[in-house]
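Field: COMPLEX_INPUT
Field: COMPONENT_COUNT = two
Field: RESIDUE_TOTAL = 253
Field: MODE = joint
Values follow.
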Amino acid sequence: MAINDVAVRREVILPVDRETAWDAIADPAELATWLASEVELEIKAGAAGWLRWEDGERHPAMVEEVVEHRRIVLRWFEEDGPETLVELVLDDVPEGTRLVVLELPVVQLEAVGALLEQGPRVIGDSSSGARGPQMVAALA
Amino acid sequence: MSATAPQRHPAVDAVFTALSDPTRRRVVEVLSQRPSVTASGLAQELPITRQAIAKHLTTLVDAGLVSAAHEGRETRYRLTPEPLAGAMRWMASAGARWDQRLARLAQRLAEQP
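Field: COMPLEX_OUTPUT
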């Protein structure tokens, strides 16, 4: 039983440069092609809106943080699930751009120590390659 | 902010809160390896005080992950893992949703000229 692993983490290598990948995750019209069936949410820190999932219902969503061309943190609610934070992080890799997704229940972070109160993190040198999602670091 | 009140799921939240602490995860691990233990027994195995153990056990009991039974002068704790199922179910379905979304995204970007 993976009780140490209470976050969902996925990654994918996208065969495009980081700028193109950014448009795919930061433009609501693009998000509506892969993330949800309808997206009414501006990707700007503090923005609130909703996403329509496959179930046809609108689910409230908020943008917690945006680091241009690098990182987006959303907060949303799905039915039958906890309120979660979703972090999307882009990194340059030889094959294109790596997108790392981390989704974890907000209560996790609240208990760990109010990550959100720390404010936006400074993103370091992208060439290091060793940097994982910031929320993972907060949980460690 | 949306007018829609966020739908929280107290049971699942409680489980995730309970598991957010490394010491509590260790307690759960120890409990999963034997039928039942006392707080003193746990304190011998883990590098924390009996008082701290008692607090963690209370949180786990509140989340429904551990049950307490009084046997004579001692209280024995045992793992009741059923509530974990809800949390695990959420993780499995959230993971599956991301697999689908990321497959759509990768396909879309691969198709671009």
